[in-house]
Amino acid sequence: MPYLTKQYKFCAAHRYWNPNWSDKKNYQIFGEDVRIHGHNYTLDITISGPINDESGFIVNLFELNKIVKLHVLDVMDHSQIQLDIPWFESKQPSTENMVVFIWEQIVTKIPNPAKLNSIKLRETPTIFTEYFGQEGK
Fold it and tell me: Which CATH number covers residue 22?
């Protein structure tokens, strides 16, 4: 089965902080990332499924672009993640949590018979997280 990956970009800011920890422990665990800082994220959405005989596509990219724009980019781009997105109120704005959030926003919106295969979010040139949904555990 073929896999199609579409890449998106967005910018967002965040900071790491656990209010249940002391200042000292927050600095020990998160270092300078306790300060508000931003990233230029690269998001890869991978879709799998049968190729439509008529279009030759797994999914209509115009439709996928609309879904990702409405449910991910319009929500996350130029946000301060832990303050602007209620889902993160009790979660760290790590790439590990962000891929789960993104998955939950779009998994049910991908048109059948295509399905969401994975989310890959790159925070820096050396850090990225991939998520394959609950089945990928």
Answer: 3.30.479.10
User: How would you list the strands of the sheet with 79-80, edge to edge?
Assistant: 79-80, 3-14, 37-48, 115-124, 127-131
Q: How many domains does the chain have?
A: 1
Structural domain including 17 reads 3-136
Over the stretch 56-86, which tens digit does the pLDDT of each residue have? Answer: 999 999 999 999 999 999 999 999 999 999 9
pLDDT tens digits, 11-46: 999 999 999 999 999 999 999 999 999 999 999 999
